[in-house]
Amino acid sequence: MHVGDNTFWSIGEVARKTGLSVKLIRHWSDTGVIHPAGRTPAGYRLYGTEALARLQLAQTLRGLGLGLATIRDVLERENTLSEVAATHIDALERQIRTLRTQQAVLRSVTRRNTTAKGLTIMTELARMSAAERRAVIQDFVTDTLGELDVPTYRRGLLAATPDLPADPTNQQVDAWLELGELVRNPALRTGLRRMAHYAAEHHPGEHDDSALRDAERVTDDWLRRVETAMAQGIAADSPAADPIVTAIVETWIPTQAAPDDETLVDDAQTRGLLLQQLEVASDTHVERYWQLLCIINGWPVRPSMAEAGRWLTTALRAHPEPGARAAQLAEMYDAGEDAWGPTGVLHACEEVLDAVGRLVSAVEPGQFAQPTTCADWDVQALLNHLVWENLLWAGLANGTPRSDFTADHLGDDHVAAFRTASQAARSAFAGPGMLERRYGPAPGRRLVEQLVIEMLVHGWDLAQAIGRPYDSVQHVAETALPVVCEIYGDLPRTAGGSFAEPQPVPADAGPLDRLAAYLGRTVT
User: Fold this and answer.
1) Measured between alpha carbons, how far is 448 from 425 in angstroms, rounded to an integer?
2) H or E stretch covering 442
3) What is the pLDDT of residues 380-409, one digit of tens each?
4) What whole-number distance in Å separates Cα of residue 405 and Cα of residue 95?
5) How far is CA 276 from CA 210, 281, 318, in A?
6) How does DSSP assign 178-215, residue by residue?
7) 160 backbone dihedrals φ, ψ, rounded to 5°
């Protein structure tokens, strides 16, 4: 219909032009999204070009997900289109983040093979907003620390809240889901409260930044020293560990407040205090808590200190005061008699090296990946250690100590490598006067004795792994067992020590099995 220069359309014509239904146009007209320009004599609505333009814009905005009230505000110019667009962008971004997180959760479910109950928990965690995630951690920290007077510790925990990015990686989503489960674990709550209780008892109140920097410096120092010692193959319960403990204690003492204004010195009481601190701090659940927060927030993740911590706590137990272990060994060495009888320890060493050599020769490369009774060692790693032990004791006997513990000592021929290393040990031990020469507090025969013990027990490990007999040295093991008990009987049997707790053996077990069980092996 034309009226002057203007054109008007019926609702049916508008529907055909826009592709919208008559019902929808009538509804939008009733709610004020568009307005009729007039009516026919029969009372039917007529719409002009402005209504058509408003309909097209309304259709576009509706497709973007805006509600009718917002669309009406835009059309009436109560809000500009740019203002509405900015608001809608924020809403869409929140929806996109939610969808991406839910997608990542479902991917995590497939990777974790999660149960139905676990899926429910994970879904709840995934749907949380940033504010809800912060509240989870803040409520957890507040409830865990309670009334303890540890303001600095409390602030540090409350400040470190999970902040998932807009587009989190699978690792970040997994970390948040794991963190959400972890804060429900009573073990984490116990570990954090134990640390806080220790701090409240020994260092209550506020702490300035310098105290925190000192703590970080001391931690970096002992980690560096311990990791170097571990890389050099120094056992935590060996005499060589004592100087390392001494250096660590000297660095740590200035950071401690001495009781009753006393001056702390490196003695049994001070080492006991350091051991207590480490035991409180070495909680794997708490360490994992901080690692997960770092992953979620994109911060650098500090490698686990658990292994180094086990080494240092074991070293402190084995060396409760400076020089204690060395003095104990010196007294034992001076008082001890040669237990090896008329044939002597050199003959025992020859027999054991020959027996282990036969085992090594029987190993096929296809067996390298087979597990052994030594934790974390397969057959190849065990062979490498057998070669290293011969090189180590040969070097000590020759006055040229080795420090290449982590190197590959096998090369392309494990049989030749063991033969060469064991020959080096035999030659070093055969030197004139070697058995009586002093090596620190120990006579040379004790060095030979150590290699015999190592070959006996690790030869047993290898025999078990490849299913070969090793009975030819039963009589050597029978002589060695009381020597082993004398040397290692007082050492701490911990995860960081040389040996695990003694294990039970059948009543009819032979000397080799008894020796292996005493040194922590499971004998079946």
Assistant:
1) 9
2) strand 442-443
3) 999 999 999 999 999 999 999 988 988 999
4) 55
5) 23, 9, 14
6) HHHHHTT-HHHHHHHHHHHHHHHHHS-S---HHHHHHH
7) -90, 85
Place of tokens 């609702």: 11
pLDDT tens figures, 17-68 = 888 898 988 888 888 888 888 888 888 888 888 888 778 888 877 776 777 8
Q: Specify the pTM.
A: 0.75
| Cβ atoms 345, 435 nearer than 8 A | yes
| Integer angstrom CA distances of residue 328 from 102, 235, 442 | 62, 17, 11
* Cα distances (angstroms) measured from residue 83 to each of 71, 74, 77, 87: 12, 9, 11, 6
The closest of 126, 160, 146 to 189, measured between CA atoms, is 146
- Mean pLDDT value across residues 427-448: 92
Asked if residues 446 and 329 have their Cβ atoms less than 8 Å apart, the reply is: no
Please say whether the beta carbons of 437 and 429 come within 8 A: no
Give the residue carrying structure tokens 């008082």. 335
Q: Which phi and psi (to 5°) does residue 14 adopt? A: -65, -40
- Evaluate whether 170 touches 108 at the Cβ level (below 8 Å): yes
SS3 assignment for 13-79: HHHHHHCCCHHHHHHHHHCCCCCCCEECCCCCEEECHHHHHHHHHHHHHHHCCCCHHHHHHHHCCCC
Characterize the bridge pairing of strands 38-39 and 45-47: antiparallel
